[in-house]
Structures are given as C-alpha cells and as structure tokens.
Amino acid sequence: MALLTMKGNDIYNAFLAGARNLISNKHHLNQINVFPVPDGDTGSNMSYLMQTIINEARPSENLSDTLESIANAAINGSRGNSGIIFAEYFNGLYERLRGQAHAKLEDFSEAVKHATQKAYQAIMNPGEGTILTVLRKAFDIPGKHDNFESYFKTSLAQAKIALAETTEQLEVLKKNGVVDAGASGFTAFLEGINYYLETGTTDIPVHEEVEEIVEHHEMIVDERYCTEALMINVNRGPEDLKQIFKDYGSSLIVSGRSEKMLIHIHTDNPDKFFLELRKYGQVLEQKIDDMIRQQQAISVEHPKIAIVTDSIADIPEAFMNEYHVHMLPMNLLIDDVSYLDRLSV
Fold first, then answer.
1. Which residues contact 210 (CB under 8 A, 6 or more apart)?
2. Closest alpha carbon to 85 in 123, 40, 47, 127
3. d(CA 139, CA 162)
4. Residues with Cβ < 8 Å from 212, sequence gap 6 or more?
5. Alpha helices, DSSP H only, in 200-339?
6. Cα 78-79-85 angle, rounded to 5 deg
7. Which of 224, 219, 230, 220 is nearest to 289 (CA)?
8. Given pLDDT bands bounded at 50, 70 and 90, which one contains residue 304?
9. How many helices (H) and strands (E) does the chain have?
C-alpha cells in the first residue's frame, strides 16, 4: 500500500535504514575524501552522526516529536563539515514540521526545501559541487507525486545524477577522479530510505567493500585545526555568530538552535576562538583535530610506526612535525569548562 501520510514511526524507520546504509559505506567515503581537506575522515564523521541518531533518537507516532528527537541527536553527533551540514538539514526538517502529528507529501516537500535552505545558511561561504548541491538537486523534483515511495525514488535518481556532476564542479575532485564524499554519503542515506520504503525493513544487506586506491594530490592546509564546539544557552543567533567569527578561519558553519548549537571552523588559533566563544554561551564539548597529522597519516610516506604522546610531554614542535608525532591533549577544567591542553587553552 502506498504511503500517503508520513507519521513519526515512518520517518524514524526510513531514517534508520538510511543511517545504516550510510554507515556501511564509511570506508568508501573516507577513501574518496579530498575536499575541503584530504584528511580521510568524512566517512567516519558522517557514520558517527548516524550512529548517534541510531543510539539516541526515539520513535513516536507523533511526527514532530520524532523529528525533534532526531534533530537533537544529530546536533550531539555531528562531526566535520558534511556531518554538521547534515545535522542542520535535520534541524530544518524539524523546524518546519514542528507541532505536526503527521504530514502529507506536500507539507513534507516544503519542509525538505526549508531544510535545504537551512543547510546553505549555516555555512559562511557555501559552494557548489558538495553535499549542498545534492541536497538541493535531489528534491528539485519535476511533476507531481501521489505518494512518498514515488517521491523518494525520484529524489534518489536526481541525487545520483547530481552526485556524478560534482566531479566536474570542483577542480580537486576532477584531479582525483572522485565524487564529493559528503554528497556520496547523502546519496547512500537516500538509498537506505528507498530500501525501507520498497521492502518495509530497516535491515540493510551487508555488502563487502572493495578496497580502492585513490591518488591524493599534494595540498596545502591553510588552517591546521578542524575545531568544533557544542554549546547550550547561546545568547546570539547563527547569523550573528557567523559575523563574529568570520575572520577567525575558514569553513565556518553554525548549526542548531539557541538551546543547543554546534560551531565548526578551520583555524590556526583554536585557543583564541574558544576564548572569544565563551562570551556567547556555555561550551559543553570541544573537538580539535590536527588536519596536518590526519593528512600525513593517510599518505604513502607515513612511517609504519606511529609515535603517540600526551600534552604533558615537553617535545619541540619541530621534532613533532618531522617525525609525525601525534599528541593527545589532557583535559583541563577551567571555570567549569573542560579545555584541551595546548589546543583550546
């Protein structure tokens, strides 16, 4: 029987199948990850987001309640550029359908358009040839559809076309002969949704991934640290925060609502970023990834033996750079906020 009305349990099961299918593509997504930085973690970041939704979201017959649960879980689990964009997309769906116990296709279609706009707005400088492009084109559906199965089947076909086109839209993707990893992750999510709508089951078939060899071109990392902050009780809106931090680095993304918000930025000075950020709300969690070390770790020149230390060790930075030493920062509690030694303080 065709699905004419989307209820809470329907969207939960559809997204659950989508999440599981994306997770099954994690290694492939890592291997083709060359934009915006070739650090090989897009699959891991998006899988972490999906696993958090699986672990934390709770289904309800009420559509609004289910979407709120999914949106909150997405903020908690969002990591990296594509993961945070995806989380803001979920937040946009909830924002538009808040208060509705169920939704007809027309209402859901409008919510999808709103969610796409939210994803674009979350980014300081949105670009095409990325997950944003596929988010937009997948649901730019011609004609009228009578049921959700037909709607999502068409959206998947549109997404696959848009995904293939990303190779030509960004020079770095063209050089490496790959599609955008984040866009590929979203397409895998849609594949899972369609599998559920066609079969009625969320048990995604396990497929054995084929090892791929991707030639990573030498790239310069303009800002070293991929920096993220999860905040609550935020006293400024997303647009204000984007303006405040626009000169602190690149890849600035602000996702969420005042009660819970996540900010992502690539910067050389995460300590200055967090010092300023504390003025605008309570920082619950911090994540700072050294993208130079990440890039080195997936290169063919990386030594077979890894040296790992913590921030207590007093090792010169030049030595750490020469021998690719990985540092695990200690947590320092300052004014009831846990900071990362040598990085955020």
1. none
2. 123
3. 11
4. 28, 31, 32
5. 238-245, 270-277, 291-297, 317-322
6. 65
7. 224
8. confident
9. 14, 10
pTM above 0.70, yes or no: yes
CA–CA gap between residue 253 and residue 264 (Å, rounded): 5
Query: Does residue 169 contact residue 120 with C-beta atoms inside 8 Å?
Result: no
Answer yes or no: are the C-beta atoms of 331 and 338 closer than 8 Å: yes
β-sheet bridge partners, residue 327 = 309
Residue 213 pLDDT more than 50?
A: no
Beta strands in the chain (DSSP E): 5-7, 102-104, 225-232, 250-257, 260-267, 282-290, 308-310, 326-328, 331-334, 337-340
Q: Which two tokens stand for residue 3?
A: 């699905």
Instruction: Compute the mean pLDDT over every residue in the chain, rounded to the nearest whole number.
Output: 90
Distance CA 288, CA 273 (A): 11
- For residue 84, give the amino acid letter: I
Residues 6+ apart with CB under 8 A from 135: 85, 89, 115, 116, 119, 186
